[in-house]
User: Which sequence fits this backbone?
């Protein structure tokens, strides 16, 4: 017998499938759809590959346990964003505590080793990307988040407003300042 | 009728979307129509574009896809392994949950009582005589205690918060999070306020040794170093 994969299209369909008991496929679709988004959110906070992956898994397990009760007052993405930020912040608190108790420094930040397109400029490109992420990480949380959600995730200001609980006007101002700061810092770096 | 001229604030708010080509056609026309009024912004746009063009080739999606490739499988495995919270109300689960919760409460009580106790009295028997040994302790969190005396009990080092799968299966995760949050918050505040200066030692003699080491003068220190050279470790 040939079993056709169900191609779920919308968040609503995912939740409905899940509620109807088609857990495996709905779970798969749900995680596949949002894993990159959640991972990137987690990474922006913890800046460590393994921790970001652990947090991502925890976010989905948490979300799946509560998915049946999801009230659809916000989008799944917004809901996941909030869970991810909470988990990431809790994780950072724990890390801080552990690093203190064990007399050890916090783990050094992982770098995002983006693929290089040619060997000749590999090092230069890697350095540039690292610097970019360093600058991004140095921004105030609000600016960093609005920039990332808009620039990387292509979210609308309304969606970001719902996620961050800030007015659209405030977000636009934050976005502008984030872009300006990144550009200024990157310019200084490139001129060195 | 002339087109509406945008204010500087409006221009700044639209600038990033203009640079990254995310403005609607109408907004784009309005932005470009007003741009001659703000020559400094025109210069800024060119600079920002130049810088971001260098970053455009970052393959974020491809990178993320490789990093998160196995997450759906891992989540599915972990999710199916993890029992529903309702399952703890089976007899076995309930007993385990109560026992687990009791252990945590006892551990927390010990931790807190040790942290806040001012002194410990021990009856030490030596050669038939009973001596009263008094060890002074300083509280973990107390605004009256000078910074230098605030102690962090090393017993906390061995205290493992119930964040592992086993505990989460047993306990309602909310309880776990609340407990962790409670302790974390207090300790992080303590660290932020620089009240945490040094740690306790298992033996009083170890603490005294460290305290004495801080007081020795250079000559004595050099003598110790000299003597240590003869020690085979």
Assistant:
């Amino acid at each position: 017998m040939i079993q056709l994969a169900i191609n779920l299209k919308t968040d609503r369909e995912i939740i409905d499938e899940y509620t109807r008991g088609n857990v495996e496929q709905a779970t798969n679709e749900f995680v596949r759809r949002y894993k990159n988004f959640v991972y990137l959110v987690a990474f922006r906070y913890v800046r460590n590959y393994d921790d970001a992956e652990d947090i991502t898994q925890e976010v989905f397990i948490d979300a799946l346990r509560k998915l049946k009760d999801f009230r659809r007052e916000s989008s799944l993405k917004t809901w996941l964003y909030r869970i991810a930020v909470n988990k990431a912040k809790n994780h950072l608190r724990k890390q801080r505590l552990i690093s203190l108790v064990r007399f050890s420094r916090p783990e050094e930040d992982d770098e995002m080793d983006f693929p290089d397109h040619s060997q000749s400029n590999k090092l230069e490109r890697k350095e540039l990307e690292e610097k970019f992420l360093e600058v991004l990480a140095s921004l105030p949380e609000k600016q960093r988040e609005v920039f990332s959600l808009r620039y990387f995730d292509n979210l609308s200001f309304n969606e970001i407003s719902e996620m961050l609980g800030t007015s659209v006007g405030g977000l636009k101002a934050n976005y502008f300042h984030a872009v300006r700061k990144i550009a200024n810092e990157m310019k200084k770096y490139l001129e060195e | 009728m002339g087109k509406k001229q945008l204010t500087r604030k409006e221009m700044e708010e639209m600038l990033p979307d203009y640079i990254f080509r995310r403005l609607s056609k109408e907004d784009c026309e309005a932005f470009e129509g007003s741009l001659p009024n703000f020559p400094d912004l025109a210069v800024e746009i060119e600079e920002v574009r130049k810088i971001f063009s260098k970053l455009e080739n970052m393959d974020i999606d491809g990178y993320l896809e490789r990093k998160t490739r196995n997450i759906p499988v891992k989540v599915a495995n972990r999710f199916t392994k993890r029992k529903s919270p309702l399952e703890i109300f089976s007899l076995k689960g309930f007993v385990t949950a109560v026992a687990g919760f009791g252990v945590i409460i006892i551990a927390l009580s010990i931790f807190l009582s040790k942290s806040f106790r001012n002194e410990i009295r021990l009856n030490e028997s030596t050669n038939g005589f009973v001596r009263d040994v008094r060890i002074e302790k300083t509280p973990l969190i107390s605004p009256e205690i000078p910074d230098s005396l605030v102690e962090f009990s090393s017993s906390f080092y061995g205290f493992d918060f119930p964040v592992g799968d086993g505990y989460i299966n047993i306990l309602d995760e909310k309880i776990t999070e609340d407990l962790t949050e409670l302790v974390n918050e207090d300790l992080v505040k303590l660290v932020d306020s620089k009240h945490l200066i040094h740690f306790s030692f298992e033996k009083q003699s170890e603490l005294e040794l460290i305290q004495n080491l801080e007081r020795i003068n250079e000559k004595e220190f050099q003598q110790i170093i000299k003597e240590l050279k003869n020690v085979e470790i």
